[in-house]
Amino acid sequence: MSPTPSAQTEEAPTRPRVEGEREQEILDSTIDILAEVGYDRLTMDAVATRAKASKATLYRRWNSKAQLVIDALTSQKEHHDFPDTGNLRDDLLGAFCGMGGLTDGRQLAILGSVITAIGRDEEFAERFRQDFIGPKKAMSAAMFRRAQERGEIRGDLDLDLIAAALPGIVLHRAFLLGDPPTPELIAKVVDQLILPAVTLG
């Protein structure tokens, strides 16, 4: 005998999606905890408690901690497009200084909190490189490409290589040498290393 309609409803209940403002509240809570304790100590339980949501609600939307953290990182209000000022130096300073850039202490703390996870969590590392670093890398390369099109810099550059140079140098100094990123440091790297390396001789 086939089950009654009411029995079918009980067996396959509708599972509401987490979306809109409620989703962003959960993602914001994730970022807060990430900045406070790091990726390794962040748990779905802690996010659920901070966001006043059930853990089941989180798992209906995110299958894993890695997925939740990546979505939180890419949803940040501080995320912004790189500037297009018509001048490479101004583009670089505008992109890497200020809110959402390398001088943003909160952003630096968040980045530092996921460094260990990149080496230990294969799922997280793959999604981090694809969904978080990938778009930033593409926008940075686009700044240099526009400069090439303007005739401002050499045309024979490896753009992927040169686009990674500025953040690579600044983050190396921050995390390994303990030298906090400042607008002055970034300007020095741009003026003394990046521009001499790319401009027409």
Automatic annotation (TrEMBL):
Region (Disordered): 1-22
Single GO molecular function: DNA-binding transcription factor activity
Nucleotidyltransferase keyword on record: no
Domain HTH tetR-type residues, every copy: 20-80
Superkingdom to which the source organism belongs: Bacteria
Membrane-crossing segments per the record: none
InterPro entries for this protein: DNA-bd_HTH_TetR-type_CS, Homeodomain-like_sf, HTH-type_TetR-like_transc_reg, HTH_TetR, Tet_transcr_reg_TetR-rel_C_sf, TetR_C
PROSITE patterns the UniProt entry points to: HTH_TETR_1 (PS01081), HTH_TETR_2 (PS50977)
Basic and acidic residues composition bias: residue spans: 12-22
DNA-binding region(s), residue ranges: 43-62
Bias-annotated ranges (Polar residues): 1-11
UniProt keyword list: DNA-binding, Transcription, Transcription regulation
PANTHER family, per the entry: HTH-TYPE TRANSCRIPTIONAL REGULATOR RUTR (PTHR30055), TETR-FAMILY TRANSCRIPTIONAL REGULATOR (PTHR30055:SF148)
Name under which the protein is recorded: TetR/AcrR family transcriptional regulator
Species the sequence originates in: Nocardioides humilatus
Organism classification: Bacteria, Bacillati, Actinomycetota, Actinomycetes, Propionibacteriales
